[in-house]
Amino acid sequence: MSHLQDGVPVAAGLDELPDDPFPGGEADDTLRLARAVLERYPVADGRCGLPGVLARSGRCDLELGGSAVDTDVPRLRAGRVGAQFWALDLPEGTGGDRALAATLELLDLARAVIAAHPEGLRPARSAGEVIDARNCGRTAVVLGPAGARALADSLPALRALHTLGLRVLTLSGTAWAGGKTGLTRFGEEVVREMNRLGVLADVSGAPESTAHRVLALSRTPVLCTRSAASALRPHPDNVSDDLLGALGAAGGLCMVPFAAEQCGTAVEDVADHLGHVRDVAGPESVGLSGAYDTGAAHPAELDNPSRHPHLVAELLRRGWSDTELSLLTWGNVQRALRSADFTARAAQDRGEPSRARLADLDGG
Amino acid sequence: MTQTTSPSLDAARELLREWPVVDGHNDLPWALRERVRYDLDKLDVAHRQDADLHTDLPRLAEGGVGAQFWSVYVPSDIPEPVAATLEQIDCVRQMLARYPERLAPALTAADMEAARAEGRVASLMGAEGGHSIANSLATLRALHTLGVRYMTLTHNENVDWADSATDAPRVGGLSAFGREVVREMNRVGMLVDLSHVAASTMRDALDTTTAPVIFSHSSARAVCDHPRNIPDDVLERLPANGGVAMVTFVPKFVLQAAVDWTAAADENLRAHGLHHLDTTDEAMRVHRAFEERSPRPVATVSTVADHLDHMREVAGIDHLGIGGDYDGTAFTPAGLDDVSGYPRLVAELLDRGWSSADLAKLTWRNAVRVLDAAESVSRAESARRGASNATIEVLDA
User: Which of A355, A360, A361 is the mutation pick for testing B, counting most B CBs within 10 A?
Assistant: First the structure.
């Protein structure tokens, strides 16, 4: 379990401190136990759509919360969310240079929102910074995934977005990733450059041909930031057992969204999907994706990020071991982030940035 | 004309060893894009590249250059201005990574001084035209985060919020959003560059800015009447503003005979179906044929010194600098043929009676002071207010 070595030992008894915003009325020992588990290994949440919501509906004070948002700082604390990926989702139909500028705007907004809530949030660009934030009692915010359209077909744009904090890119929705060919030669070059920089690849929503090609190419774990099991419930963003097996074999990570459309309307449905992914891909390849503020409808008991302990309680009742739970909530994501950092450091010593261009590699 | 030693040239070189040149504008990144698609293996500026470029590392050293604002220019009609600008920034970063013993990344006045102390060329970046931010203040901030330290408000064409010197007047200077762009540049610490903009835009920007401005590559309109040059009433405002006008060498802006000749040459290029700023081999061939029929008037070191003498009289010695526009112009003055030429300009000014202290201000100290002042303003402004999220749709409705 060397990949858990940065797991933070938390002083015993912390969960007895009176910081629970919903005290009383919950005599459930399992829920208390779930909170204790999460004190040691908090939740690393694979997808939160807050930047897009705040861009559309205006910013709000995340200490007080807002009616337009599922996510706020007290809920993140109550849900024991130690790290969260903030998706930079563009409005439908945004393309070309506008997609890049719009992504710069979302990055700018996300950085400003994080900076405005220093007591609750802290930006994190590496596994180490996630641990630092966690040690300071803040929720680490990792920027991404952004959609592949954000690159405007340009590797220099990818490098700039990385400099500005982007750490996850979804490989779908462009001519070079997610189209008929799965991944074109330029798409392959994008994946290599992502490895070189330390930007994780997300293949949720991509055709499985793309996902398999990315898995074969990437030197660092590949994520599905919002995918449940299509064996249990068909959905365009859910993944087949075949892909889950490949993801597991490659050390990747399937992060199951708390989305009614993809999993079902009850917390038990989410638990079913998590169990299935664990069984098919392996306990080291399953993760959580709240999918809050993404427009998705949530199972009733998981309607905001404070509810993570309810899911963990359900998994405890189903016999998930401490080790499995620690991997699910925190350890697997830490491994992916650390692997991306490590791969990038090694690659940057070996080679120079790619000068490849779409027109050169893919014709046109 | 391009003699290599003389007492004043030796004195100039000596002076530049202590107070090297800060040059406000050099288009090497665009030249590298156009010529070799950024492949520095094909055009390695560690070695002299006289045949292809005005700029390389040996000639920068010979010219006594201590700091360079590399232009991250993209044409204003390019379909993807933001991506193309990021590509230019990326090019400068690759240059910095490739030549660390000669080029030092610089974001601040302190970085510039550190580079001078190490004998490296402090490398800063300037964006040439508001089209690079696509009407987005967040994109402006992203460029700043990526290292860009000035933005010319327009290039040769108007932007939605500012008029260019070489386009038909539209908003009459700066629009409300244009003024907000200037305020946000003040807040983040990006210098406002007024080269290329209409005189009305210069005046509006001076009315708005709380930090010193620069003209990264412009000369004096009173000496040569070209819209790219600075009118006297604007030069007169520099002492109050604290800014700096960096004299440019481009013959078609500094020499009246060259202004007229260029108009005719541009017409000739257009008649051949080429853009008048085209610097491809074909365009240069057409240009050379024209030149055989109609000899090109030659600007000299003295032409540029005439501008500086005038600018000094109007703006004062504390408000002058140098912006050669190398690799952004097809022709250069005799004696200032490439980036190795600056000592000849300094020698000319010594011969005209400029003191060493004056020349130190011209070459180095004024430009560094201006960046330092912009940093102070940025600290003060960002303590007072947060990032602006104004939009052109609202402000210029």
Answer: A355
Its sign, for the CA torsion B253, B259, B263, B266, is negative
B182: which 2 tokens? 């200037």
For each of the domains in chain B, give its residue range(s) and CATH number, in order of start.
7-255+299-384 (3.20.20.140), 256-296 (no CATH)
Q: What value of ipTM does the predicted structure carry?
A: 0.93
d(CA B397, CA A184): 43
Contact B143, B149 (CB under 8 A): no
- Write the pLDDT tens digit of every residue in B157-195: 999 999 999 999 999 999 999 999 999 999 999 999 999
Q: What's the rounded Cα separation, in Å, for the pair B286 and B272?
A: 8
Domain residue extents for chain A: 28-351
What mean pLDDT comes out for the span A231-241?
Answer: 97
Verify whether the Cβ–Cβ distance B82 to A97 is below 8 Å: yes
**Per-residue model confidence (pLDDT) at position A14:** 45
pTM of this prediction exceeds 0.90: yes
The correct CATH number of A28-351 out of 3.20.20.140, 1.10.579.10, 3.30.930.10, 2.60.40.10 is 3.20.20.140
Annotated catalytic residue: which of B56, B180, B325, B381?
B325
In angstroms, what is the C-alpha Rg of chain A?
19
Active-site residue, B310 included: no
Task: Please check whether residue A316 is in contact with residue A308, taking contact to mean a CB–CB distance below 8 angstroms.
Answer: no
Reported confidence tier of residue A180, pLDDT bands at 50, 70, 90:
confident
Task: Examine residue B79 and say whether the peptide bond preceding it is cis (omega within 30 degrees of 0).
Answer: no
Give CA separation, B167 vs A129, A283, B155, B278, in Å: 49, 64, 10, 18
- What number of other Cβ atoms are within 10 A of residue A24's Cβ? 6
